[in-house]
Amino acid sequence: MKSIASIMKQLPNVPSAEVVPLTIDAGTVHVINQLFRELMAIFPAWKQAWPDKEAIGAAKATWVKAFMAENITRIEQIRFGIEQCRKLGSDFAPSVGKFIKLCQPTPEMLGIPSLEKAFREACRNAHPSMAGQGRWSHQAVWHTAKECGFEPLNRLETSLSMKLFERNYVITCRRMIEGLPLQAMPLALPARAEVRRTPDIGNKALAELRARRGLEVR
Fold first, then answer.
1. Of 3, 30, 142, 151, which has the most beta carbons under 10 Å away?
2. What is the H or E stretch that residue 105 is in?
3. Average pLDDT over residues 111-119
4. Per-domain residue ranges for the chain?
5. What is the mean pLDDT of the chain?
């Protein structure tokens, strides 16, 4: 496995499979130093946020703590955040909170429905009238709905059920990023078989019915 230092030298083109825990050690110090160099290169007005060495040092310590608290533990997450920073078009460096948000791909970036669309789909398919008939656009939506529970999605107020779904959808996205399995969707119901109806079949069925009725009369 490559060292943190060798991986960081390749930013922003590191392999997505590399996983590096952000513990307080020499490797983490190197990661944070490299990150701040990248940010200073991207944002020409970075001194507004970090005017001197003391401020830079304090900011680095804060960022490490925030990364650990928010589970930013993969080099690819930091790389993604840097790539998003390049697209901001701002001269000013982001706060650690904003950078952490930039490290998280949106559902659309993962190829799944937006939060709003996924929520509407889950509520619609969770309704009792849709039992066994709901069509799910993606396994991630099904997984999130199952984690929420169909009954809460039906009974809670919209604002509350939305918060519940959002929390679980964020977790689902993290599972996808980390390559963890999702709950499998149920198999689709078989299409209703079309029975071939002919006069002969109808007449035979009618004759059998009459015969049974005749026996009952006796």
1. 142
2. none
3. 95
4. 4-104, 110-177
5. 81
